[in-house]
Amino acid sequence: MGEELRCTVRFGDNVSEGKALLETDELVFRGDQFRLKIPFQAIRSIEAVGGELRVSFSDGSAVFELGAQADKWARKILHPKSLLDKLGVKPNMKIGVLGVIDADFVSDLRERTDDVTEGPAAVNSDMIFIAVDGPGDVKELASFKDHIQPNGAIWAVFRKGQKEFNENDVLRGGLAAGVVDVKVVRFSDTHIASKFVIRKGER
Asked: Which of 88, 95, 145, 162 has the highest Cβ tally under 10 A?
């Protein structure tokens, strides 16, 4: 869901090669010698200098050798996008929300656009957010193809970390329902959202 880059990291007296990941709300490093998980809220200072991303946080200081990407990662950490920005919600969009129980999310939607419907989806919607709790719900995605604009989107919102019903089940179910997955976004601490669109040949 985020960005990743092979790099070298210095943490205290330790140096390791590995993979750095810039996630929605944390900076992660999975190295040969050590691992780091740095929540943005734990970061005390951050700067990009000469291709290095220097991060001071609650457990110490780390230097990520990211080259040309250092400035970009620093900006993204200092100025993270909001959830609605990541979902692509724009002012004046026609939005439908079905079964997604998140008062803050709905409130934020209503602040961005006046056209938000909770319950049965309106036709010609730009986006529909649907709570998906199992295989039966995924099959319902097919029925919403006629409710969105040709270039609109259906976002399937589901709980993460479940073995019996996970992201792979959602993606396979969407394809079986005749829509194509194009993006995955961290929706909350407990949920993920997968974006589905109508196949180009059917628009």
From this structure: 95
